[in-house]
From TrEMBL:
InterPro entries per the UniProt record, alphabetical: CoAse, NUDIX_hydrolase-like_dom_sf, NUDIX_hydrolase_dom
MF GO annotations: coenzyme A diphosphatase activity; guanosine-3',5'-bis(diphosphate) 3'-diphosphatase activity; metal ion binding
Keyword Thylakoid on entry: no
Domain Nudix hydrolase: start-end pairs: 37-194
One GO BP: coenzyme A biosynthetic process
Cofactor field: Mg(2+); Mn(2+)
Entry protein name: NUDIX hydrolase domain-containing protein
One GO CC term on file: cytoplasm
Gene source species: Helianthus annuus
Annotated signal sequence range: none
Swiss-Prot/TrEMBL keywords: Hydrolase, Magnesium, Manganese, Metal-binding
Gene: ATNUDT15
Keyword Nucleotide-binding: no
Amino acid sequence: MSKERLAALAQQLRMYKAPVAADDDDAMGQPSERLRPKKAAVLICLFEQDNNEGIRVILTKRSSGLSTHSGEVALPGGKAEEDDVDDADTATREAHEEIGLHPSLVDVVAFLQPFLSKHLLRVIPVIGILSDRDAFNPTPNAAEVDDVFDAPLEMFLKDEHRRSEKREWMGEEYLVHYFDYETPPAAEAGGGNKKYLIWGLTAGILIRAASLVYQRPPDFLDQTPKFKLPRVLSKGTIMP
């Protein structure tokens, strides 16, 4: 029954077409005066366990030794490389390198509208279905990932264990959401609960993904920033 539900979800998501941003150079098919940011892609890998706990998403805790975002919760993914065929190739390649999730196990079904990070990185969320969870044995790359875990996707639509704060960037006010998640006790003797904080760009992406999967808005205000790429003037000068 679980695989049947996942197949129905995959069919639903394949019909989704992300909105096109007005200043998206790729979509417009012509050069723009706006800055062309570096591209990245993250994998929103969804699966369902046999205990009918609903759709879950695979997450990582970044290595504490990384120079940026060390120790933070993230979706597997990273910057595009020249040999990548498309965004799906970037996301699944990075997931394979980071946590040992082989691309052949993931059925890519949808792409969300790009997010723009504070470092002006254009991040494309790629939704994939993992129909056979038992086939995936997490093997985190110690140089990049400290831990691999999963969380219920629907929690990113609920107001429980959530808080937010207002911020402003490039003249736009927006909300940053923080979700506290605690894993169930480990099955082995002496295993305790693990606590994670999921926030920022990762939380924003998961709110949008959950809204699409469950076909409803979150139970809280989600004030998404309307960021626009800066314009590039002569001699590389960047203006808002």
